[in-house]
Amino acid sequence: MYSMQYGNAVGETIIRYDNFPDHPDAAHYHKHRADGAVVDVDFDGLQPLFQRFKSAVIDHGHDW
């Protein structure tokens, strides 16, 4: 299992990618968004997924 999370100082999730099977309507590989939605993601391996996560964090204004 894996989890990559970006949040704010008050503990709110902005982006989280994980493969924890806690959402029966979502694919095994999915992303949690700040609005609470859980969306399916393509999984081509951890390295490409990490790069996608890093790009999303940068898009939110965090200077990685």
Class by alpha and beta content: alpha+beta
What Rg do the Cα atoms give? 11 Å
N-to-C order of helices and strands:
EEEEH
Biggest sheet statistics: 4 strands, antiparallel
How many DSSP H or I helices?
1
Distance between the termini: 24 Å
Helix content: 10-25%
Strand content: 25-35%
Counted up, domains total 1
The stretches of 5 or more residues where confidence is low (pLDDT under 50) are: none
Shape: globular
Using brief descriptors, characterize the structure shown:
about 60 residues; alpha+beta; four-stranded antiparallel beta sheet; 1 helix; about 20% helix; about 30% strand
Short summary:
By secondary structure, this protein is of the alpha+beta class. It has one helix at residues 46-59, and strands at 3-7, 13-18, 30-33, 38-40.
Q: Your description of this structure?
A:
With 64 residues, the protein is α+β, with helices and mostly antiparallel strands. It has one domain. 22% of the residues lie in helices and 28% in strands. The protein has one helix and four strands, in the order E-E-E-E-H. Strands 1-2-3-4 form a four-stranded antiparallel sheet, with helices on one face. Strand 3 and strand 4 form a beta hairpin. It is globular and about 30 Å long. It starts with a strand and ends in a 5-residue tail after the last helix.
Layout of strands and helices, then pairs:
Elements: E1 3-7, E2 13-18, E3 30-33, E4 38-40, H1 46-59
